[in-house]
Structure formats: structure tokens, C-alpha cells
Fold:
Amino acid sequence: MTARSIVRVALVIFVVLMVQQTMMVALRIGGVHPDLLWLLPITAALADGPETGGIVGFWSGLVFDLVLPTPFGLSALVGCLLGYAVGALTAAVDPRTTWLKPVAALTGSVAADMLFAVLGAILGQPQMVQIDFVALFLMVSISSVVFVLPVSRLMRWALAGENNRHSLVPAETGSRIW
Amino acid sequence: MARSRRSRRTLTVIVLVVVSLSLISLDLNGRTHSLTSGIKSVANDIYSPLRQGVEDIINPIGNFFAGAFNYGAVQSENEQLQRQIGQLRATQAEKGFEQNQLRELTQLESLPFLNSLPTVTAQTQDQYSSNFTATITLDKGRADGVDVGYPVVGAGGLVGQVIQSFHHTSVVRLITDGQFKVGVVFGPGNKYAAIVDGQGPGSDLTADLVSPGTPLRRGQTMYTSGLQAAAFPPGIPVATVSSFHTPSGASQISITVEPSANLNQLAYVDVVQWVPNA
Structure:
């Protein structure tokens, strides 16, 4: 894990947080707005595998948790699980496949929102399942497919260390090359 | 080698999941909530000016393009607003006398209303930051006298309640949020009581616990009840009845209500510095 990668990932998380909280929240249609948070673990997992996906998901979720009114730690939990799951499920797929990013972004974001709402309700926030899920899924699906490429580019830049293709996880023989 | 790598991956994720769950339990536990609240407070004090700075850069650019693309609509809207301002000035002048009378009557009757309660006027910084909650963020916090539990009112009536208070910002749960509940009274002499429930962002509210046969009419206003230990002072307009019916065999009327406050116009709100009586 290089210090440079950590700083770059932190910078990407900050940029995405700012874009989300200033521009995306203003794009409300049908009472819902795009949610870029889930794209961070998804793109990290696609770029460097499940462990990096889980780590980026945890930290990005934790940063978003600091400014969201939902339970503290919930985004971190869902982000971590999402990153790991996307990395594990796409491990056998050629990362150069064109459909991989949009499909992973769409399914991952929708699954993460569903998990987030259900866990929130279980943890004593029943209002989190009292929303228009059709509108939410439509908005999140479309926005995730649209924004996955720029976020993916940022994440690839962040995870490309000085020795190129370094990640948050120590390199070792047989580690995934992206 | 591959197995050890998989084990390490799994272990890392398990550790992070355990940390996340610990943070959630700290946040939800009443005794340790102040810890996570304190962390959030510090983070918000750092984050708010940064966010404001980014908005100050982005907004003029956005407004420029919006203005350029919608010049005709903006001009027409401007003319319409000018007309409305003129009409409102005329109406205000006519109503000045009546308002003075009403104020005097209110004082005479010692009606518990906001006139007698201290308020803090706050500007809305952020609306609906999450898709899962109906909340707004205000630019006033503990340092400005805004604390958790304080009611928030806007044009027309009750807007919500402060649920998080940081040093210079606070978060308000709107009355449309699914977790919002408020005791109300309505009808002749305000002798009928109900509970108004938020049903989530974008959905109408409901009024529950009204037994069949209770006189109701569309447009009827419901006010905060202010019963002992109520979370809100009495007499704040909460919602107006938009529809109602009694399903056969039901033990209560099914009532749909609309917020009295205009929740689309929340640029400025008043936080009422009111603490429930023990």
C-alpha cells in the first residue's frame, strides 16, 4: 500500500462527496437524486479486486456517514460488503469487457440501495423502506451507468501507484492485474 | 498461496464489517450516541465551509447556463413576480389593521403561539441529502442556540424537528419523513385529537386514531396539541385534511392530510427554542 495511493483515493472520495452533495442532490426527479457513493467501491473492486473494493467501500462509506443523517456506520458497512461482493463476483470476468462496468454499476448500486434500506429498517429506521423504490431504482440505475466511466477513470488514477498497478493491498505473486 | 490470499481478503472484510457494526451500535445506543455525534459534529464543522465554498464556485456557473438556456422563461417569471409583489403590497396594506387586531387578541387571550416563544431564524443549506430520509440542514447549530428536539416552523406551519445539532449546523427531520409523528387537535373547540404520521418523502401524511363519526371536512386544519410532555408547543398548524373515508368495519377513519407549511419553500425557517415540560 503506497502513501500516494491512499492520498489519491482520499482525494477521489472527497471529490465524489462534493459532487454528490452539491450537484447530485440538486438533480431531484420524482423525489430522488443520483447516488454516486456506491460507484466508489464498485470501481475500486473492478480495478483491483475484492479486498481493495471492500477497503475503499468502507472508507468512502464512513466519510459519507459523517455528513448523512442516516445511522453512522451504515454506509461503511454496505460499501464494504458491496466492494467485496463486486470484486469477488467479477473476478472471473475479463476486466476489458465493455459491458462489465455499466452492468456492475447498475446491479451493484441497486443492490446496495436495497441492502442499505433494509438494514436501516432493521436497525430501527423504518422510514428507510417507506420510499418510492421504483423511482429510486430508476434514478440510481440510470445515473450509475452514466457516471461509472468518469468515476472509474478517477479510481484507476487513484489506484495506479508509482510502480503502476499498485493498490491499497500489498502486491504479491498472482495478484490481479487490471 | 491462493488460499492464504483468499483468507486474508476474507479476514480484512470481516474486520471492516465488525468495525462498521460496532460504529452502528455505538450510534444507536443512547449512552454512546454522544461519541458518534461528537465525531459528526467536528466533521460537519470542517465540511460545511468546504461545501459552501464549492457551492459558491458551482452555483454562478450553473445559474449562468440555466439563465442562458431559459432566458425567456426567466424574464416572464420575473414579470409575473413583479406583479405579485405589487398585489401583495396592496394586500398587506389592507390587512395591516386586521393583523394588529389579531395580535392584540392573541395577547389578550394568552393564546400559546410563536409570538411568545423565542426563535432563531436559520437558512437552509441542504435539502434531502439522502434518498432515504426527509431532512434539511440548517446553517445554525448549538453555538446559535439550536438544540436537538426544537420544533422548526416555516411559512404556513410546522416544518419539522431538529434531530442533530452540531456546532454551527443542524439537521431537521421534516414532517413528511416516515419517522415523524406529532399529536394534533382539530375540530370545534379543538376537542378532537389525532396523530399525524409522515409517510416518507413525496408522500402525503396520514392522521391516525380518529374514531368513526368524528366530524371532519376537507381543508380542516390540525394544530399541535401541546398535551403534557408533548414534543411541540400547542397551536402550530401542522396539516390540512385533503381526503378521508371510513372503510367498512374499521375502528378509525382513514385520513390523508397535506402539510400546512410549504415544504417547497424552505430557504428560511424559524427554530423555536422550546423544551417540552417534564
In short: Chain B touches chain A through 52 residues (CB under 8 Å). The mean pLDDT of chain B is 83.
